[in-house]
Amino acid sequence: MTLHVTAVQDLGPAGSGRAEVLRYAAALGALSGGPVGRALVRADRAEAGLPESATADDDDRPPLDVSGFAEHPGGGLEGLVRRAHAGLAPGGLLNTRRVLVGPPGWLAGQGVPVPSGTPDAGHTVAVAWDGAVRGVVTLRTAPGDRPGPAA
Asked: Model's pTM, two decimal places?
């Protein structure tokens, strides 16, 4: 018997709005395919008022483009996330954020200052961009056998 992630239980404030944090975390989570990624995608859809079965066509929010996606085993997720058709930011730079999603200790190892008191337990992931933690996600887990491969 193991624990597996079933949902996002809570999102603690750290510097950005809940919807924005979930949106950027879910952009990476959708590419990971792991249980944390799936939980982030479900939470983002729920926050936006979309059904779990929603597709990109059902979502009227501006799409997010992800490039340079990497999944670091035992660490977290990383990617460059940009609002599609967002144009240029001041200074002529693309509106692109280097987004990191993972355990707070892993983010600290990536050079992101983690607020003191942030739990670094197995059921917590932090979301960061622009060199700062923007939200801390507590994951709900449930005992049970992990689903095996389809026969």
From this structure: 0.82
